[in-house]
Design a protein that fits this description.
By secondary structure, the chain is an alpha+beta fold. Helix content is 61%, strand content 12%. Helix 5 runs antiparallel to helix 6 and helix 7 packs across helix 9.
C-alpha cells in the first residue's frame, strides 16, 4: 500500500486522468445521452487507463527494487542503475557518478595519509626503543630507590608507546589477528613478570591462579589487555593492597584489585575514549584511553569485558574469552 501511494504521488497524471474521466461521464449523463453509450465509453476508457497504470506501476516497482539493491554501495551501484528514461534522470545519474568519483578520491587520500602516519609512528616506535633500552641498561648498573623509581617510569613510557601503536593498529582496515589455543596461566604469569618492577615499586601483593584453563584467542592482543588492566590496578591500589588474576572454565579471566574503585556514576562510561572519571581526574597523568583500547580489542576478538567496582573496595574486571565471532565473519 505504501508503494502504491508513493507511485500515485509520483504519477499524478493517472489520478488526473481518472478525475477527468469521471467529469466527462457526468457531463455526458447530464446531457441526456444514452446511459449505455456513456457507460460503455466510461468502462472502455477506465479499462485502458487501468491497464496502462498497472504496466507503469510494474515498471515503477522494478526500478524501485533496483535502486534499493544498488543503494548498499554507491560505487557498486552505478553499473546497476536502470537506464535513465529522460534527461532529468540522466542528470541525476551524472550527479551520482560525480559524487562517487569525489568520494573515491577522498577515501584514497585518507588511506594514503593514514598509511603515511602509520609508517611514521611505526618508525618512531622502533627508534624510541633504542634510547629506552640504553636507559634501562644504565639503570640496571645501579640498585637503589632512585634507579628503581626511574625503571618504573621507563616502563610507563614503554606502555604509552604500546598504547599509541595499539590505537593506530586498531584503526587499520586489517589487523594481524592470529587465533590459537592460549594457556591463560602461563600468559598471566608472563604479564605479571613483565610488570614486576611496578608491583615491587608499589609494594603490592600479586596472586595468579589461572592454571589449567585455555582459550581460543590472539595471545599478543590478549596480553596487551591483561597488561593494561594490571597497570590500572597497580596505579589505583595503595601500598599493601593486592592484585589477583584468576581463571575459570568458560573460559573467563578475572583481574581484581583492592584499590580505590570506580564511582557508580563513572562506571558506565569508563570504556569511552578520553573519559577519565573521578579517579582519573585526580591522577593528572590519566589519558582515558586504557580501558577504551581494552574494550576495542576484546570486541575485535569476539570476547566480552565487564567491570564491577565499588569505591574504596576495589575493582573486578571480567574477561569472557568465549569467542563469539571470528574476525571477518
Amino acid at each position: 500500500m505504501k508503494l502504491l501511494l508513493a507511485y500515485l504521488r509520483a504519477r499524478p497524471f493517472f489520478a488526473l486522468s481518472a478525475l477527468l474521466l469521471c467529469v466527462f461521464a457526468c457531463v455526458f449523463a447530464l446531457c441526456d445521452l444514452p446511459l449505455g453509450a456513456v457507460g460503455y465509453a466510461f468502462a472502455l476508457c477506465a479499462a485502458l487507463l487501468l491497464a496502462l497504470g498497472a504496466a507503469d506501476f510494474a515498471r515503477f516497482r522494478r526500478r524501485h527494487a533496483q535502486l534499493r539493491r544498488a543503494g548498499a554501495d554507491l560505487r557498486a551501484a552505478l553499473p546497476l542503475l536502470p537506464e535513465p528514461r529522460d534527461l532529468i534522470e540522466a542528470d541525476y545519474q551524472a550527479l551520482l557518478r560525480g559524487a562517487a568519483d569525489g568520494w573515491t578520491r577522498e577515501v584514497e587520500d585518507v588511506q594514503a595519509r593514514y598509511e603515511e602516519r602509520m609508517d611514521y609512528f611505526t618508525l618512531w616506535a622502533h627508534q624510541i626503543k633504542t634510547p629506552i633500552a640504553a636507559m634501562r641498561l644504565r639503570l640496571s648498573e645501579e640498585e637503589n630507590d632512585l634507579s628503581r623509581a626511574l625503571r618504573a617510569e621507563l616502563m610507563s613510557v614503554e606502555r604509552y608507546v604500546e598504547m599509541a601503536m595499539c590505537y593506530l593498529r586498531l584503526s587499520a582496515q586489517s589487523t594481524d589477528y592470529a587465533f590459537a589455543p592460549c594457556d591463560l596461566g602461563a600468559l598471566s604469569r608472563a604479564c605479571v613478570r613483565k610488570l614486576a618492577p611496578l608491583f615491587i615499586g608499589g609494594r603490592l601483593r600479586v596472586r595468579v591462579e589461572a592454571d589449567g584453563v585455555t582459550a581460543l584467542t590472539d595471545e599478543k592482543w590478549l596480553a596487551f589487555v591483561i597488561e593494561q588492566l594490571l597497570t590500572n590496578a597497580i596505579k589505583y591500589t595503595r601500598a599493601g593492597g593486592e592484585v589477583s588474576v584468576t581463571a575459570e572454565e568458560g573460559p573467563v579471566l578475572v583481574i581484581a584489585d583492592t584499590g580505590a574503585g570506580i564511582a557508580p556514576e563513572d562506571l558506565p562510561r569508563v570504556t569511552e575514549p578520553g573519559f577519565t572519571g573521578r579517579a582519573g581526574r585526580e591522577d593528572k597523568r590519566a589519558s582515558g584511553l586504557g580501558l577504551y583500547l581494552c574494550k576495542r580489542v576484546t570486541d575485535a576478538l569476539g570476547h566480552g569485558l565487564s567491570i564491577d567496582s565499588k569505591p574504596g573496595e576495589g575493582t573486578r574486571v571480567r574477561l569472557d574469552l568465549h569467542t563469539r565471532r571470528l574476525i571477518g565473519e
